[in-house]
Fold each of these.
Amino acid sequence: MNINFTYLPGDGIGPEVGAAALEVLEAVASKFGHDLNAEEHLVGGAAIDARGTPLPDETFASCERTGAILLGAVGGPKWDHLKGADRPELGSLLPLRKNLNLYANIRPCKPYTALIDRAPLKRERLEGVDFIVMRELTGGIYFGDKGRDEQGAFDMCRYSESEVRRIAIKAFDLAMTRRRKVTSVDKSNVLETSRLWRETVIEVAKSYPDVELEHLLVDAMTMHMLTRAQDFDVVLTENMFGDILTDEASVLCGSMGVIPSASLSDGKMGMFEPIHGSAPDIAGQGKANPLAMILSAAWMLRLSFDLGAEADAIEHAVEAALAGDHTTGDLGGGLTTFAVGQWIAGYVGR
């Protein structure tokens, strides 16, 4: 099979963790008999420096053509003086999400056994935790009209029924492959958009009689996620709430450096990236933890190419690396960024 995808190294530590992930993908391709073709392009701050824009036309064209995107990270203080869409993040990530219709963002929360004691909660709060947050990614307050006038500033939050329906269907479909429970998070006691959200989710749930549906207000969810995380299976929520809750969930895993994410459209179109940022303070030092990027590559294989066995091989190798301390210093190991990738590639190739 030809694994053809767009590789966007990005800024800061992005190229380092990306190089480690490519090393692992090469090992997977070799072992399973695939041809690997990564179309590398500039994005974010690196693209601003070289091309004067955070999302060059050829970068977007490649993303649209391959339909599978592996992204390192974008942004950094070097470009903090820029405004609006001239900034690396706003000028690249949001247009990619919107123009490629990447409306469904998923992030896992399943603590690795080797990392449970690194999390701030007691072990008994974390053992058995295994849920996925399904976040609506192209609507809501982040994409609404915004501006300032003589009286202040405004950001409009708006959702259509069709936007809520399609993300709800993805959440229920995912729940059918797992433990058959959806927890929908909103603020329907205050917000009209949340009342529409809840009404639409209830309507979608009628087509999934085997899936349990639970509703929680977002402020209550921030508490329940820390006190009964084992109860959740698929957590469904809107854009801003999901942004906040997924960062909270990352703490349960012991390190943001081991959490991948996927932003999906209909069909096989997807963008895969670690949840961490560009960490410019450690860029170029070989200290960056590449595991989240490597796991994002595994998700790309599974979700964009239907290569489940190949993705499993990577994930098993990551578990072995964590169990044996074949990691970077942030996780207690002594390997460099690329050396971690080499170790995992070697494990995959056995």
Note: The mean pLDDT is 96.
Amino acid sequence: MLFLSTWFPYPPNQGSKTRAYQLLKALAQHHDVALVSFEDVPLRPEWLEVVERMCPLVEVIRERPFARPRLRTWLGWLSLTPSAVVAGYSRRMADRVREVADRWKPDLVLAMTFAAAPYALQLGGVRRVVDVDNLLALMLYEEYMQAQGPLRRVRRYVAYRKLRRYERRLFSQFDLCLITSALDCGRIREYIPLREAQIGLVPNGVDLDYFAPNGRTPEPDSLVFTGSLAYDPNRDAMEYFLQEIFPQIRQARPAARLTITGAAGRAALRPGLLDEGVSFPGYLDDIRPVVRASTAAVVPLRKGAGTRLKILEAMGLGTPVVSTSKGAEGLRVEAGVHLLMADRPAEFASQTARLLGDPGLRASLAEKARRLVEKEYGWDSIGRQFERMVDGLA
């Protein structure tokens, strides 16, 4: 196998890296896997050692996957070429992939996300798999529908049309496209002419041993949101929460406080949204202590695509979740059974305040959510299902 990654797949400290790491780990158990990856952040030696124990051959391209000069970015908006709006093409990555393929002679190549997909297509005589992860064209369409102002709407619409054409042309050339939910399997059929055999359902999951409850009582009236605010859907979710929801929660529960993890922190938010009830611990190597210590995890997402690992990880840790329907979409959850769900600010605030004040409800949600992830979303079982799918193709 040849594994092409947009992100270096360790440590698994955000959604895309976690998925890349877990799929690589599943393949490496019974196959010889070579990895070629961009260096999205400076690598520590111990991270490289973990991956080298799984892969006999590891090649790292010392470039960030989406780095491109500002001039090329603006020219891309003016171009009619669909790929001009997507990530810049790396000659170094293309050359290295060909060199490794000549040495490795892979039976199958797997590209993690649309950014790595073009390098897989340059190889002949192999089966090709792409991990779609997020349907970015549909995400851009949602942003177009929500955009304020004519210029912003035009830009979003042009980007959506370009990316839709690009994804349609790109993904149709692969033998297998991996999709994270049954919902997205239906969506991708609507705008990409794929055969049924080209679509493979591989959900996101959670490491059930790593994300496990420890039996400790959480701190009263404590909320947590995990995720970098440098990612626009996360930033939008927190600005929405702090402006329209959190003040109502504080009226009902004056002691309520919120912890927001992630490297971007308060600098990513508009001024005037914060009070003494919000804290920013910054980037955390291990988010488990903070999530376990919280009475509830809030996921007030209004945009984005794919399925949210932050919900699965909170469920694994035994921390109840309050989410919008957008945040929980694609997951096989039932509102009121596995989590609480609300889309209007007043309802979201009411549900959160209710959860903070009801230990019995928290215990019921936590127990049933943990049972759900054990049954449906353990990475070990997902990895075995994925491996069988790839074996059948190869």
Note: DSSP finds 15 helices and 13 strands in the chain.
Amino acid sequence: MKLGYQQGDRLAYWWVDRYVDVSDAQEPPTKEAIARFFAWHRRAQLPEIATVLTRVRGEVGGEVSPAMVRQVQQDSQRLGRQAFDNAVPDLADLMLSLTPDQIQRMESKFAESNAKYRKEFLKSDPAARTDARFDKIMSYAKLIYGSFSNDQERAIRDAMAPYMQSADARYTERVKRQQEWVALARELSTIRPPKPQAEAMLRKYADDWQRPGSGEQRSTSAGVDLTVRIANMTTPEQKAHAVKRFDGWINDTRSLMAESGVSPQAPQAAR
């Protein structure tokens, strides 16, 4: 985690450039914006992330409840929205500078990503579809808990059925978000509104997606139930592995804070 975070500015620029092919004129302000974002993130969010990790570290060694998992989701959504809102002024500058060709490239990259997603996770054969999602779920589970027995893996696979029922709905939502983002980019490129108006439009986009519909709620509920099921079938040894894993992430976060001169006492603990 620490190594990835230390390369975050380079990775972020690579991601932006991959989607819009940053021009020579756009490159300096884009790199400066990314540097500002990470400076803010180290100061404002690393302490909160350390707090969340510390709380979860104290929970993974025992019985895990749906409320605990939902709290982690809420913390992630809250921190993600704070990060988006912080980036909005710089994001507005970039969006207002995009050309029609750059927006078309963005749309094409989304289409490429979706084709890859469909090929991997939306196979026509139900068993193959479940296999692909099972492998993804187990990669996360093993990251936290270590290895699983064959009996545990069979139980996890059996418990996936409710989650798999919303696979098509999750993909539909993914595409809809992308389409609305591209439409917003085209609108900003066409009307070139004043920057405050562009910022308001970006925040409205985020607001609209923070009001989930019933389909997303069903998917989220099934994901929470599956997460709880996996956590509570683990052995004491697997729970100890999880505690050790969180210790490593907490230490990485605190080390990054120390490198940046950020006090571990501020801001206040996440609620």
Note: DSSP finds 13 helices and no strands in the chain.
Amino acid sequence: MSSNENNDLSPYELARLERIQRNEDRLRSLGLIDNPALKKPTITPAKRKKVQKKRVKQTKSVPTRSSKRLKQLEDVKHEGDTIGEEDDEDATPITPDVDDIKVDYLNSTPKEPEQLDDHEFQVYASLRAWRLRRKNELEIEPYKICQNRTLCELIRKKRKDCTFLTDQGDQNNTVENQLLSVWGIGPSKAAEGGFGWEMLEVLNAEDNAELLELSRKNVTQVTES
């Protein structure tokens, strides 16, 4: 990615993406993973937001997720602190699956990127990069292209059904009609050549298709274990 493709991500989103990358780099250095899809997207160091690290006072509460990594990121989000490069020195690397993340794939539709698993989140970052590029080209507000909720729902629908947004030979189930089933996508965006079709191209990119397939396989493995 170029140096400015990720600079519209929030500090929390940048922190999460960096943490995913560092964990995967550790696992890759140990020979535990070797998947090209996990190398994308990248963040240029010049665009990483750095602030002074401060101690976050721990309070007793009922965790909503079991991931230690996600708990740390929630602290970042709520306290306004950004995880710096030195923060992760003692962090325990995570395995490239979702056994430490509680994501409801079946009974809810994600509205925010926090409700995506790590593989889905990397696809989300790619779509955000596309949206930023198009926003700059067209000189319009990002929400006029699509909202974050649209990206999250689009990713989850594609992750749940790999045939979603493909021509299934059914006049009532065209790609355009499938796009219209996604929150925030109207007729103009769903029409061939619209923003919906551009987002489909991003989803179908090799790296993103592999990431979504990894998400499907990892959940299956966890469920069957």
Note: Residues 11-224 form one domain.
